[in-house]
């Protein structure tokens, strides 16, 4: 609850142009965004640029923040879009260099970033399938639909504390599954779990 209340407070403050609140969030979360992008791009300078741009975009779009949002989820989506844009532009540039023309389907092609995310999602789905039904439902409501523990508790007729316990257990079970079953994708899945679980 305390974490969620802090997030709501940060959302309100950042939305209202509070630079101290923005700096606090930036300093708390920048490294995770940087590491996430680094594991995808393998390029330190590019990762720094995208991480910086992610927070610049957050500040520019702060008026779009709502109390119902997950601040980390909002930033995650910005970072994902920026990485995807980078690889899409790179693919277009390579197409011009090798063919002299742009393939009309190039913008719809599968990017490296998309491959990684699809791979991660596939293994994550398998990890989620190992959870008991109720824990799986709670996890998806929290991480995929960005509902607060209070909102989930209200929906399921239980308490926020009970939801918090379910999430702690589910997160542990998922991390253990990823360590055991991820194979060669372990580095990406560890980043996934550290940043987004």
Compact overview of the structure:
With 197 residues, the protein is mainly alpha-helical.
**Could you spell the SSE succession in H and E letters?**
HHHHHHHHH
Task: List unreliable stretches of 5+ residues.
Answer: 100-110, 193-197
What does the radius of gyration come to? 19 Å
Tell me the number of helical segments per DSSP (H or I, 4 or more residues long). Answer: 9
How many structurally independent domains? 2
Major β-sheet profile: none
The CATH topology of the largest domain turns out to be Rna Polymerase Sigma Factor, Chain: A
The number of E-state strands comes to: 0
Topology:
Elements: H1 2-15, H2 19-41, H3 44-60, H4 71-99, H5 112-129, H6 133-143, H7 149-156, H8 160-181, H9 186-196
Helix pairs in contact: 2-3, 2-4, 2-9, 3-4, 5-8, 6-8, 7-8, 8-9
Structure characterization notes:
It contains nine helices and no strands. It has 197 residues and is mostly helical. Helix content is 78%, strand content 0%. The protein has two domains: 1-109, Rna Polymerase Sigma Factor, Chain: A (Orthogonal Bundle); 110-197, Winged helix-like DNA-binding domain superfamily/Winged helix DNA-binding domain (Arc Repressor Mutant, subunit A, Orthogonal Bundle), CATH 1.10.10.10.
């Amino acid at each position: 609850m305390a974490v969620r209340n802090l997030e709501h407070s940060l959302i309100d403050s950042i939305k209202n142009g509070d630079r101290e609140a923005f700096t606090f969030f930036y300093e708390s979360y920048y490294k995770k965004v940087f590491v996430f992008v680094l594991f995808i791009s393998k390029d330190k300078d590019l990762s720094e640029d995208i991480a910086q741009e992610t927070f610049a975009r957050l500040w520019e779009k702060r008026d779009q923040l709502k109390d119902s949002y997950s601040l980390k989820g909002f930033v995650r989506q910005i970072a994902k879009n920026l990485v995807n844009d980078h690889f899409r532009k790179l693919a277009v540039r390579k197409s011009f260099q090798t063919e002299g023309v742009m393939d009309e389907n190039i913008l719809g092609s599968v990017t490296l970033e998309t491959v990684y995310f699809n791979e991660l999602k596939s293994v994550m789905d398998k990890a989620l399938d190992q959870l008991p039904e109720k824990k799986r439902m709670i996890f998806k409501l929290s991480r995929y639909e960005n509902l607060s523990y209070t909102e989930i508790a209200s929906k399921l007729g239980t308490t926020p504390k009970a939801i918090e316990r379910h999430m702690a257990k589910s997160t542990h079970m998922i991390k253990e599954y990823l360590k055991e079953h991820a194979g060669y994708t372990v580095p990406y899945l560890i980043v996934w779990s550290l940043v987004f679980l």
